[in-house]
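Exercise 7 asks you to align residues with tokens for two separate proteins.
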Amino acid sequence: MKYLLDTCAMLWALQDTARLSATARKSLKNSQNTIAVSVVSYWEISLKRGLGKLTLDGAEPEDFPRFVAEAGWSTLPLSPETAASSGRLPLLPDHRDPFDRLLVWSALRENLTLVSRDGIMRAYAPYGLKVCW
């Protein structure tokens, strides 16, 4: 299977695995699975850290691309086509977070299962989104 980690799942997988569900941990440990992290997550981490809304345990935002590579995961770029078409993702009530929306849209376009604890993500299932938690 191919997975895309949302930002929280990526942070927890790298810094606090106990916060992941047993299903998510098992999926990440399975060497048959492909794991990706979007550049959108790096942007979100950097922005939220800069705004004082995120603390990182002994790390800087610039460290995460290296952490992801060391974990054996890939980085999913944000293609111009994905960025330009992201407005096609239906706008759900109470879900306007641009980072989440780009992650959902990227997962849909790339046929990836999104690893996320965020319950609102499951609301995109009718549009084809698969969620693992």
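Second protein for Exercise 7:
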Amino acid sequence: MSLGPAEVKNIAHLARLDIDESLIPDYAKNLSDILAFVEQMNAHATEGVEPMAHPLDMSQRLRPDEVTERDQRELFQRIAPATEAGLYLVPKVIE
């Protein structure tokens, strides 16, 4: 599927993007290439293929769940304009 300048302008309008007129042909080519790739992928049978969280079959390295910083709430709340019971008080913004 090939996109023309009118389609690119419409897509940009729908996405609320302001794009430079001189770049529209580049956007059209790039978007057309993406759509062509999706069409290629749709041509392959994917029934019975389990979705993957990541394309590489690797386990994720996790760091130990340990506290690495000391609690500084009291220090930070001393300089806050208003606090109460360990919470920051802010002006009401919604009626």
